[in-house]
Structures
1.
Amino acid sequence: MIIGGGLAGCTVAKELSAAGIESCIVETGASIGGKVRGYGCKSDTKCNNCGLCAVGTLWRDVEGDMRVKKLCNARVIDISDAGGVFCVLIQSDGGKIEERFTDIVVATGFEYPAETAGAGYDASEFPRVFTGHALEKLMKDRGADSIFPEAPKSVAFLMCYGSRNLKERAPYCSRVCCAYSTRAAKVIKHYYPDAEVIAFYMDLQAVNPGNYAAELEGRGIRLERCRPADISFDGGRPVIAYEDAEGRKTKSFDYLFLNTGIHPDIPGNTALADITGLRVRSDGFLAYVKPPEKTGVYLAGCAASPMTIVETMASARNAAVALINNAAGGRVR
Amino acid sequence: MIVASQKPVEEIRETLKDYKKVLIAACGTCVTVCLAGGEKEAKELAALLSLSGEQEFKVVTPERQCDAEFLAEFDKDVRQADAVLSMACGAGVQFMAERCAGKPVIPALNTSFLGVNRDVGYWTEMCQGCGNCILEKTGGVCPVARCSKSHFNGPCGGSSNGKCEVDPSIDCGWQLIYDRLKSLNQLHRLYEIIPPRDWSTSRDGGPRKLRRTDVVTEEV
Amino acid sequence: MKVIVVGKSKYRDAFQSALRDAELEPVAVETAAGLKNLPEELPVVLLYDANLSPLIMEEGAAEKAVSVLKPQDAVVFLMDRDEDANPHIEYRVLETASRLASAKRRVTVLLRSCRAPDERFDDLYRIARQKGVTFIRYESLDITENEGIYTVVARDGKLSVSIDTPLLVDCGEKPSWELQEFSDALRLRTYDGGRISGNRWFLNQGATFKRNVRLVDTAALSGDIQRIMPALVKDILALEKPAQEKTAFVDAEKCAFCYTCFRVCPHSALGPDHGAAAMKVNDLLCEACGICVAICPASAIEFKAASPAALGDKPADAASGEPAGAASGDKPTDDTLGNKPAGAAAEDRRRTAEVPKETAGGKLKIFCCENSAFIIAKEALAGTDVKVESVPCGKDIEIEPVPCGGDTDIEPAPCGVNIDIEPVPCGGAVNAAMMANALRSHDRVMVAVCCEDACRHRDGNKRCIKQVERLKSRLDSLGYDSGRLSYVRTGVTMVEIFKEAALKALAGGEMK
């Protein structure tokens, strides 16, 4: 059983299928694909290395794969030991069903915060504010000449918005935001060369080899290192108040992007840890207690820690390969 | 090998305009290697020229057009055409013309030089076929072909940073000769004067012919 | 199965024994010359020990270096690295800095950007801060040296800091000249700067364009070879079979032995067969991209079904109508342009032989790269009022309408005649002859290729665009409307962009 039909879960399913192993994806959503299926390639005319092309025909392949059973609109309620195999209780459209599996892969991914940390409001109420998920949709749906309904004069990115902040429940780096938001910034600047694009940051990852900050500034993206102090709205337009070396400043923008980061689904992870024998780390992500070869429970993807698309696929592959090797060698629990 | 390049496509079309059925004869040797007149180029040209819908084209690819046996394979196709567009070098075009009595044979290429392939898509002239090779005296670099003025005894003095005054993208032939003789520790050879030559071994003596009488037994 | 292990890495023994555990047979090769005369398709692992300062790589080396310093001397770590392929170097730097700081040294770490790969980095960073390591971020750096003392001036906007130190540890990676030698011997297509990689470095670090050659960066493993072994072994075993269901195949009779295909093949899968005086494709290296098929000036290369048979056997000739090298007696006749007859072409759509007129329909023909445009082509055009027909390519491309995880709903696409879509394995598999031929049966032709730097066959997309541009100028000189031919660059999700380009091409314009 693969809990979660997103990027990690589907990658595991495809690997297992290639090795002749059948699997069953249990997915809470209406279809497989998770969040990544809604993501958009971030090349302007040049590839910006987001890794989406590695996904390729994954969704289609898994949807058409007879060895992969797909239970959508379903969730795992309970797992118990039934003499060396797992007996799983699944809640689905057709009611509760019970299935048996030899191994379990936990690939439940992450969640988007319902509330953007620190702002105290729901960003979806504000059409000029985009969180990570909404940014991806823009990148996916864009036309050849336009991204937004109206061309912006100024765009702001708040990096590290949902992370690296003990107070607001994310005492870690989300790993992906520097990359995806600066890529999106490059795309926006390419479409709207006259727009002012500013990235407010505390730390900037070295996303590409070389001096990434210089690369971004060479593309006309202004980098401001500061702590954003406050977001307010002036007639619907976001206004950023921030402090830099010279003191406090404010600036208003047409569009605001918040890097809300990757957050673990803590209640969901806690419940899963209970029934799978995994543990919840201090930061809310899942981790092994005993090695998966002993327990038969494997972890893949962002359920374990923030990961990029490429890393997620690599982690899923590793889990699948470990599972296949374990199956081939005879399971020892 | 022989290096040639395709004539501008509108020029080719102009020369073919009076003919309804055209046989395009590609050539599988030198002009294939220099990407000018091989089967692929012939097919592209055929498709382009067919766009008007007014002419019919057929493509054949003899291995070479400078040996009669290869041409013989396509005599039948020649007979059925109004004209032949030969994509071979000038030698092949003419050989084909000799063979195709009464059929116009049109060249598709401009044959340029004897040269070498330095990289994909890049060829440079190396030899002029002067018939009297002195490469041994000049460290393996030809003053006839690679000096723009064909000087025999040193540079003209117009070169700059190793480049020819005629065209700065051309290496000065005598710079190349000097560098090469130096690397061979043979710079003293520059003191050997190469006398003015008898150019009758070259094209200046008229179109040349070559016979190896030892490989034929009948009287010629 | 033999696996060549290249390099004098200090991890070589551990690596070789891990390979033996997996029932593989490691063969050590220390120099580039040792790679000669080995079969081209044998798996090769380049064990690469990053050339880093011993002060951070060797146990105790840093302590030894500081032991000769005065107590008040500062130690400065310069974490200014152009190469960012290896975040694990930062771990070492932080660990070393922490150890020195614990021993009451004044330690400063200078860094330009902060990479936080996982919680381990955050932990190490926090520990280092607690131990008293100073971290200074800079935008620009000036270093001067005077009698063994380095003066480092770090500037960041308006702020600047100056430090004097007798021990400046450069944590950068020095390029390894050996890597270049090995790369040349293996005929790898190196990325610029001599890094063995490709433009797909971020997808699979360690992979090269040659499927049998992998780079293992030992510094990244920190000695933990086992972490990568399962996936690596699986990849190595996969090398026993060809990568795709078909491979390129050279007709030795037509081959002019010009070496063009050899030079352009991104996967170094072609090699000379001097006996036959022709090029030969190594089935186990060929990725069936079609670049050689398209570029061959003698039209001597085509796709054939791959067989798992060892190199040397002719592949089972399932796809084409004629066995290679057949006597001319039973040859099916080509049509007037030298194209294969409709039957043979229909059996194997992958040939660059032109699409026969009989099967062409529609007004616009789009050649779609399978790695990007073809994935979204049908979805992009569904819901418009153009009718789309897709040429079957041997793969099942019928898509059931399924709601995506995102918000897009797909309507089923009716089949029809306005647009013909032909999938190609790479933009580079489309040459001018194919496009010119398509213009005979269609009003307009468009090629949809991957974005710049995104070609998984290195430069196939670039090659295609060059062919398009050349053909356009020839169309112009003939007085035809060169706008009939166009191209678009697409990524795997650019549904809207592809749709706009296709509709615009259909209407007679072009996307820029």
2.
Amino acid sequence: MIRTVDIEKSFGDTEVLKGITTEFYTGKPNLIIGASGAGKTVLLKLLIGLFKPTSGSVFYGDTDIFKLDDKELRKLRMQIGMLFQGNALFDSMTVGENIRFPMDMFTRRTLKEKTMRIDQCLEMVNMEGINNRYPSEVSGGMQKRVGIARAMVLEPKYLFCDEPNSGLDPQTSILIDELICDLTTRNNITTVINTHDMNSVMGIGDNIILMKDGRLVWQGDKSQVLESDNQTLEDFIFASPFLRRLREDALALRHQGDK
Amino acid sequence: MLIDTFLYHFGRYVLLLKSAVAKPKRFSMYYKETIRQMDAIGVGSVFIVILISMFIGMVTAVQFADQLGDSFIPSYYIGYIVRDITIIEMAPTITCLVLAGKVGSNLAAEIGGMRQKEHIDAMEIMGVNTAAYLIMPKIIAAVFVIPLLVAISAFISIIGGYVATVLPGTLSHTEYVLGLRAFFVPRYVFMMFVKAAVFAFLLTSVSCYLGYYVKGGSIELGEASTNAVVVSNVLILLFDFLIALILT
């Protein structure tokens, strides 16, 4: 489990995060949602220690990551996998070499063992047989899967995904969501996903954190979204008239069922 | 204001180098990267170094021959002057100024591009010491390879001087070789290698620093690449002067 305690972050005079205290649970996808500029990415980068907070703490279990020195932080990071919004695949390396990179850096596995693990990871994301292709030679959705395979190669305890669905069509987005959700539950890892994709919220949102103007304004799961009377949540999730109508229909159906 | 900026960058540069000096987690990865950089910096620059060195030698010889004119100075001095100017100044300084343009801008753009594409963040999150993995192999490769390029440059410049003066008949083969062998001071060769190693360190570390901390988009990346060349060149000339003060 990851816990944040009263996190504040400012860039110059601009306060970006204001007193974020929350928990991210193990074994279920934790979603950070909010409009652009709400502070989601800053929070995510704080969680992985890329930014330091102005005040407050981030605990991985009982360890406050901002009290670790560089060496200890690097050791902790070996337990972290990250899927970047732009994938961050090394474009001069093949897909296989990308996935092998963390193993080359941190393990003493033989080439045969590494190759087996690469195949295993690619199979896990349904991307068998593309080891020798370069990232530029595969589609955006496939790149996301390769990114997930690379993030999972060292069997991390924590998985962070920054906008995993950005730039993907709705069908591929759902597949990526299902894949992340499946990996999270199967491997019992703590997954934090930064998204503003409504399909993700309603599909895999077991712990949703809504942010607005740097504050945490609502926390709950997908089943609570429909019933919530939080205006910010309502405005954010059911932004279009179509979605509002859909929500009213769904609530009406639910009430009918209750009767 | 200018001093503030200088101190800010100098402090950050020193801290970056400090974190780059770390025991490699997996030696073979760093070794492979160093060899790759040696190839890119060394083999990739041989042609341009040979080309400019040839012209430097030719121009030095032709101009000195013209200066001598009908004076009482013996003509074999042309070989002597070409040799010493080449070894003391032209080979290390001009070669490194050219390499600052070729290698320095390339390193700043390469590392800056990695920063912008979040490759550096990705490595950091994997637990890689990016300063050590991305910067140290480049510095080690340059400090080994650039003195060799400078030695090649000195050799080719001397050949250039020969081509420009002996072949047209300005002086004879014997006179040129006599000049090359006259008043030889071995310390100058040592000075050439010291300069080459110092300049190599400066141009790679400064370029890597500017690329590593690049922010923004393609315009900022272009600026970082240009600044890498400008700052490296200024530092090379400054240290050229300091080394000359210390070693002469």
3.
Amino acid sequence: MNHIDCKYYLATDVFKGICKRTKDNINADEPACSDFEKATKCKHCIHFSTKDEFLGLCKDKATAYPDMQAVTCKDFSWN
Amino acid sequence: MDSRKTLSEHAIYNYYGAKPEGEIQSREIKKSPSARVDKARQLYFETKSSASVEFPYWYTRRWEELEGEIPIVRRAEALKTGFEHISPAIFPGELLVMGKTHHLRGSYPMPWLSEAFFMAQEDEMYKDALEAGKVSADKVTTMGQGGGNVTQSVGNVISLAGKFGLRKEEMPILLHIANKWFNKSVDDVGHKYEQLVPGYKEKEEIMRAVICMFDSGYTLPQGREVMNYYYPLQYGIEGIKNICKEKLKQVAGYPDMDRLYFYKAVYIMLEGLQSWINNHAEETKLMASLEEDENNKSEYLEIAERLGWLANNPPRTFHDALQLVWIFHIAVLNEDAISGLSPGRLGQVLYPFWKRDMDKGLLTSERSLELLECMRMKFTELDCFASMGVVGGVLSGNTFNNLCIGGLTKDGESSANELEMLILESAMTCDTPQPTLSLLYDEKLPEEFLLKGVECTKIGTGYPAWVNNRVAIEFLLNNFNHEGLDLEEARAWSIGGCLETSAGSWMPLELEGVIHYIPGGSAPATSVGVHFISLPKVLEAVLFNGLDKRTGRRVYSSHGYKLDSYDEVWNAFKEYFSLTVEVLTLTNNIQHDVWGKISPSIINSMLKPDCLEKGKDISNKGSRYNRTFNVEICGGVNLVNSLASIKKNVFEEKNFSMATLKTVILENFGYISASETGSFSLTEQMKTTNYKTWLKIHKQCLDAPKYGNDNKYVDNIFKEWQDWFSKMCENYTSLYDEPLYSCQISVSTHGPMGAVTLATADGRLSGTTFADGSVSAYPGTDKNGPYALFSSATCYNHASSQNSQLNLKIHPSVIQGREGAFKFLEMIKSYLRRGGFHVQFNIVDSRMLKDAQINPDKHRGLMVRVAGFTQYWVELGKQIQDEVISRTEYAEF
């Protein structure tokens, strides 16, 4: 997994960010370190089903996308 | 094509006085921000403009769920859901927190306004998304030119509008939701109905010819206005909700039921803002939990406590008040595509909080300065998501958050205060583009304050701009008196956007039993209506009998004049211009009406007096003052210089015929087009082999009287144009049933509008940028020094228009030291005392700009003043860069 998929990734822009733990500058698409923890994203939610690489369904109803941040979603539940 | 010589082979720019030689002169003074802010600024320099889909996704999802709901309530629910789902982000070291999105320079598309511009690129963007490979941040950081702009798709990032990066995994969902707004967005619905306007066909041709820059109803429907922070500062969010609850009880079931839905919408919106703030409080606690440094941990916990408090309550301290102001500022920016949302006279709004904290020993000047620097970073991080034509061609990537200082109090005394002195200091220690500053000059302001303003202008930030308080008050009394604005109220004015005079009100802020009258905006968006008419392009259409020779399309019907006298040229111009204003007013009225129905303003309406009192949003004339639609123009000085040349050369001295003039215009005076040379100023154009054929005529055109030299021949033409223009605007009526008024700023439109305009009779070459502003001379043509320019600029009454705009470029050596500062201040005063409305300065050695164009990486922090805004040099387009370089540099005055 890459930094962008990690719970501790703080994006400054679409390319890069800061590690919330170490405060190091990191690139979004480079491999994560051994302290990696999964970020809360739709693709890890029990309510999400995949349609294709970029799109899926939330609760079999609303179109959603796998990489959407779900940290503020009250219905998020780990799959 | 073999003898390519530049027009001015030895000069790379124009200058007045002794040409500077030797080493490039740098700024006189260079100050630094606190270590914390210096780090934040470095992070900003390394950060790219980033778009995300989170907010529009949730907005659209909720909107769809509520089909059949009352439109304003439906929108409030959609906005609330958007706010609730913004991923919180807290960046290390921040004292003021929260942003538009989770990215440092974040923004997002609003397909409910317009989905057309990215739908038009749908196939291309899909292709980019599918072909995306492994990203390399290094690839982007080596781009050099463009600063934070993502000018091309790289790796997993797709470039939108030549500025914003979007993660490729978000592109399919963006296109999915954009499709849902097809035929439903403000753009699409407005387009359907504007076609019912007689003359719509001409409007389309006017847009194609770029005689008008863009529609306003769906591009930037709000902005160029002044925020009003009174309600949150006085009542806090829970307090405003309580006002809504009471109002709901009073209006439910009674006539004028729109009030019921408005109060309900405001209440819903405020719930969304509370969740948004609380989510950030929780994130701050998470950051604290991961922090080992005790000081940092404690700072995070303080921030979390502050956010938790402000989610419900009014501010307790200056720091609280500043944070709450910022939250509401970005809340408004998140509800619409907005440029020019000005904080207004913030130093006076926050002064009661600041003074109380200082008196109680809760705050120091050093801490105040650091907080103000943090505020500058927050405003500088703002981006406005819009199409390339808007964000690049008009805004130059800027967001125009104008903070005003000075002016008068409610009872007519100086408003300048110690906090404003610190605001000026912070603008020097943290010299970033935002917020830009305007000093509302009045004879009653203390000399110490004015000298502080001069000190700031001298270091080359481009701000403060110097603006005439008395002229603005005269303008406001002329135009808003019928809505109840009196002299006392007129003093509460401020500038919205880069330079739009905006009506304000005094609001009674009660703090510990004392009432403080604080100023705030009380009028909705201005610079809506008719957005930027290119005057030289209208004149071009006159000369070619309604044709756009660049595209070969007919824009206007034949005017029927033979053009055998100057009066005929002038009359034909007035007719084409009037037709343009008429059709654009009607079509834009429809667009704004559709905006009010589909996408009404809720948060901004709530803040603006007297919407909350009346229960009406801005689009229902809830604001105290509503005469805000205007007619904006561009290229006025090139128009006037061209008219002077035609009058003198064709009709008086008969140096050449009208037919010959048209030929030389088409032949571009024997020069290669600017689009081919890639240079957009007059100084660096290249000749074709037959340039000698047109050399004499070109010289006669260049030698014709030029505006800016205290020359009555051309100044009388300028005055005639100004007087007619200001009067004719009143013939047209806005959506709010108010007459329009004239507005004279170029922003960045003089670049792209110049690019599509043929050579002009004043000797300007095809495709080159027009003169900037409204009363700036065309580069290199002001040969008699600044005082002669001032005489020309004040040949008409500036209070007859919403603004005027004068840019000057001065070599740093001229105003060095204390003596230079006094000399500089006297020069500024002399212009304003003559009735000039506005003057601003680039204090820079033009050779530095030229070097920055060649070596952008060496000049990441270099800023210049363009029109009503300051921008990083590296984020400006070349058309504007060339124009700023070529402006006359005053090496003496």
4.
Amino acid sequence: MNLELRKIEIKDVVFGEETGVKDGVLTVCKQDIINELMEDVNVKSIKVDIAKPGEKTRIIPVKDVIQPRIKVEGKGNGFPGVTSEMVQLGSGKVNVLDGVAVVTIGDIVGFQEGVIDMWGEGAKWTPFSKTLNIVVDIEPVEGLDPHTHEATVRVAGLRAAELIGKAGKDAEASTVDRYAMDDIFTETSKYPDLPKVAYVEMLISQGLLHDGYIYGVNSQKILPTLIHPNEELDGAVISGNCVAACDKITTYQHQNNSAILDLYNRHGKDINFVGVILTPELTTLEGKFRTCDYTAKLCKTLGVDGVVVSEEGYGNPDSDLLMICKRLEDSGIKTVLITDECSGWDGMSQPLADTTPEAVAVISTGNVSHVVELEPADRVIGSAEAIATLAGGWEGCLQEDGSMVCELNAVIGATSEIGYHNLTVELY
Amino acid sequence: MSYKVLYYVNQFFGQVGGEDKAGMAPVMKDEKVGPALGFDQLMGEDVEVVGTIICGDNYFNENNEEAVKFIIDAVSEKDPDLVVAGPAFNAGRYGMACAGVAKVVADELKIPVITGMYAENPGLESSRTKAIVVETADSAAGMKKALATMSELAKKMLKGEKLGYPEDEGYFAQGKRLTVFSDKRGSERAVEMLLARFKGEEFKSELPMPVFDRVEPAAAINDLSKAKIALVTSGGIVPNGNPDRIQSASAQKWGKYNIAGKDSLEGEFYTIHGGYDPVYANELPDRVAPLDMMRKFQKEGLIGEVYEYFYTTTGTGTSVGNSITFGREIGKELKEAGVDAAILTST
Amino acid sequence: MEQAFVVVTNNPVVGKDLGEIMVVDGSFEDVLLKVRDLVYEGHQLISHPIGASMRMLFSPYRSVLVGAERSETKEVYALTIESSIDTFRRSTANRNVDYVNADDYARIDLELLKEAIKEHGIIQREKIQEVQ
């Protein structure tokens, strides 16, 4: 498969009459977006705002973040299986509005978390303080059942990204990243001496607000599945995860999966990157045993020498992570795990919910309980109640001057377990 | 800016006496005694050791409430910026006392504490999270080096400077996991770590897994009514007078006593364990080591027989290393004697 | 492995229409402790006792699937429930239970429970019993 991601550098975003890109400035026609999204009968109202890096703006609660793109050559614009018809992804040329993110807000439940601060202390902890954010607030009609409510917000966000992406149709790319990977046998014959590496990507798959989708198929329904890395880079995997702000894999992060990108970088040089295995994190123990056995077996069938395993979430998925690790290590396959931890406010607690001695190589992407102080914002895009939930965590969260302390758990992308962000943990 | 330091030592380093003085109650000396003097000199002009507390190791461990009160009063009187204890090297009871000092000063009085211990000192476990515990040699031969490291770190602590990594600075990791920014994103670090594994290069996991000491349980007993059961305790139950001088804490030995023909330990045994209120155990030692119940079961035919020897030691403050040794030694004797199972009580 | 299940729960919106339920009159932690007791009595632990995110640990309500019949106490079930209780206590030590959003948590707990039941397979015993 051959995929080209052509990055159009966007330096500013403004509202205007017509959606388009000129001289690095993205103009967005707010009304066009609103009109199109309102075509869904389940949508009651749409608001669109812009938040730029450095502004004292807070976005809360964030549901998903999506990168606006348009496929200029080849099939599969939008999100096949979800917003557009099913096609095989992973090939062609895609124009990417680089530096722009579509951020959806609109809570399905009151306890949803996810804050993006565009300035100050809070900005350091999220990668999305550095993107020009087009914030889409989606309000569904009353009386929807929760599944329909979630789907409505999810799809509207993806459609918004699709619409905005169209602006990049004729724009010129400043950089072009090429992802070319043939079948495993061809690649192996090219690089017979390089160690074979697979990437196991665990996805939260436990029900409402805890979902992932592959070509629109809910990941709770699948057995661990082999997928070509280009497919994920091309939009095959999207997020239905509305909890765990700090480590949920947003759609943007699927489109730009850093583990895939970093492995791809080394392909043909230090490693032979054979592919990605998507592994659902199920709720039942039998389900976990099955997916972990199956994942390990797929790795063995591919004849890999090493595997990078990433997790999504905290708590019961820690069991899956370590079971997969143990099965691989026992088979002589070297693993590196990427996970976040929960070591308490003082960093003194046992970091994971589970342990296994075979996990000798682990990357920690941060302590979700690490406390940060957020200054009061000049502008809040989203809901004030969400701030109250954030601030209601414990006594003394919210201070008199409006600043508040919150855990990294609530900050979008802070402890990304695909290693998207650059936090680590040191022992003192 | 000048700083005040309060120093804590035991009876030996306080130059009062040896084992014979281990029961001495704490005293406060205005002078710098023993290591306090060396420490003071290393700290330079801005820092002064304003007093030395000297306390017997046994006293601290056996009269914890009074000892703690003394410390609190002493701190209140001297108002130090830092408290230094030890270094205790591998002396178990001294290490436990330093840990006790760390607990009250750091947790309750919120004043930083620095001490020094050898890696196997039983006091390390509880003190390392509350104080900075410098790693020392196993004997006072390492005093000079210990004080040098302790003073360097103490200077930083007084100035409020952040300490470097434990392995660089020479103290035991407190177990504090601090979230910081790295210059590389997580996935890049992951790929690099995998490459290091392929090449057989050294790498450092960012999340070490705890290692649990798992012991395989022995097979179940087929017929309890024919089994020979031994009674073992770490509750410090010894014959009156403690003829073998088993320690009240940080035991260095275990004892073995013939209990053939005895229906209970009452009257002939008592407790020397320094970790619990002895009143009820002294009244009836079987409350800790239930020989009376075992005899009852034997008479009722529930168990075959009670092994004629009773094994005992003290658990509190006893190092893991010693515990493993005692366990192996006692286990060997029991196995050779054809014992099928042991009742092991602790407190 | 398909066998009849019991829902151990303190969630008021979990109804008998889902199957056999064992109502725990108490907190999230009380539900975990009840599950622990059942595991030690030999019941299979079917669904993982805790959720997949920190947020779900602050829920006032929790439902766990446990096997209806007793057999043997398995190590993996005992270890799982024990470490879940430990994780729960450590993670919620300084936090308030989020009663403000209790209704939402009740709904989501119910949804997740339904998914767990679907994953497991719906096998019912003949009689529906209600046990304290």
